[in-house]
Amino acid sequence: MSVSQLSKVQNEALDNFVENFDIINALADRNRQKIIVLLFGNLESGMTVTAITNNMSITQPAVSHHLKILRDSGIVAYRKDGLQSYYYLTLQEPLEKLENISRNLRLELEE
């Protein structure tokens, strides 16, 4: 079946995947998943790169790389406090986008 043979609902579901690739990609990596879980445990205060690195089995540059991907996808943000940056979860918009993908897939099931 080519893309042109897809139904309207199927095309919308496919478009949602493409439009939200950054979020899907960000969630697909085990290290980024662990960072998200760590940040869930520190919702109010956030965590520094050093604190995150101390809880991971990867280097600080690797943690910074994963945090950049999570920031670019809208899953995390940071705030400066003096020389320190504290990373925290910003899940509202990414969750809404994932719910939209799920909703479109459910519509496909109902057709």
TrEMBL record:
GO terms for molecular function: DNA binding; DNA-binding transcription factor activity. Keywords: DNA-binding, Transcription, Transcription regulation. Residues 14-111 form the HTH arsR-type domain. NCBIfam families: HTH_metalloreg. InterPro entries: ArsR-like_HTH, HTH_ArsR_DNA-bd_dom, HTH_MetalResp_TranReg, WH-like_DNA-bd_sf, WH_DNA-bd_sf. This is ArsR family transcriptional regulator. The keyword Transcription applies. PROSITE patterns: HTH_ARSR_2 (PS50987). It holds the Pfam family HTH_5. The keyword DNA-binding applies.
